[in-house]
């Protein structure tokens, strides 16, 4: 375990080059959050996000005036990364960025201790399961150039922070992200991501091979509340995913409702163990936010080679 330092702060395509070390020290990174209800408008959510950013910026100025120079430098490093991400992030891009996190970290294998959150996704964009992710990488390349002009940031750290920011921008929970991941210089092994056609038993087995429980799997699946999967407002991170799963709209004949969700989403509600957590999260958004936050932290820390201070 590390001794985390918490601080609440705000915040082209270049060919990626492998890096084996990162020069600057990293600490635990929290980011601004927007806890918004399911029925709040996008405009209100955005304004709330901006107001928090302004308040947190003011708080940062006050904090920096009363901390040693070394700690102030660490807080500034966090702020630079967040601001770089926010300069390129929008609600329309949030789902793609969050998917990028899952596809980079999701290659982890507990038995072989291989894969995980290591930035290798930038070498794996031609794989069928990663179709469309090159757009998200291009978005973050722009942010990375801006950040690297001030301080170096690994791809793994950047993707982890960007995913947390995407959740926050869409009204989800505050997710602290520890910094200091080292990038891989080679792609991860193929065939490690869970397939979209798996049934619940196979899904649980797949996630167990990565060190995740059924509860954590169901919580992480709630990331599909944003994007084009059909689970409510595509720009609002909330517990609508679970409510809609319980309704099973795909069982109706014809129409757009029959196209909601992936086969793997639909499989969850047919499994008793998964169904218990689906019902829990459908009825308790606060519980979902807390469990998603914890599962996300675990996800972006799997398989990580950490920078040595």
Describe the protein's architecture and organization.
- This protein has helices at 42-64, 69-86, 91-105, 133-148, 155-169, 200-208, 214-221, 240-247, 263-268, 272-283, 285-301; strands at 28-29, 177-178.
- The protein has 2 domains: 28-192 and 290-301, Peroxidase, domain 1 (Orthogonal Bundle); 200-289, Peroxidase, domain 2, CATH 1.10.420.10.
- The protein has 11 helices and 2 strands.
- Mean pLDDT is 82; it is low at 1-43 and 58-70.
- With 309 residues, the protein is mainly alpha-helical.
- It has a two-stranded antiparallel sheet with strand order 1-2.
- It is 48% helix and 1% strand.
A few lines on this structure:
It is an enzyme of class 1 (oxidoreductase). The chain has 309 residues and is an all-alpha fold.
Secondary-structure map with pairings?
Layout: E1 28-29, H1 42-64, H2 69-86, H3 91-105, H4 133-148, H5 155-169, E2 177-178, H6 200-208, H7 214-221, H8 240-247, H9 263-268, H10 272-283, H11 285-301
Antiparallel strand pairs: 1-2
Order of SSEs, N→C? EHHHHHEHHHHHH
Rg for CA atoms: 19 Å
What general form does the structure show?
A: globular
Question: What's the average pLDDT?
Answer: 82
Tell me the number of structural domains.
Answer: 2
CATH level-two architecture of the largest domain: Orthogonal Bundle
Strand content: under 5%
Walk across the major sheet and give the strand order. Answer: 1-2
What is the name of the CATH topology of the largest domain? Peroxidase, domain 1
The profile of the biggest β sheet is:
2 strands, antiparallel
| Count of helical stretches | 11
Low-confidence stretches: 1-43, 58-70
* Share in helix: 40-55%
Total count of strands: 2
Instruction: Kindly provide the name of the CATH class of the largest domain.
Output: Mainly Alpha
Structural class by SSE content? mainly alpha
End-to-end distance, in Å?
Answer: 14 Å
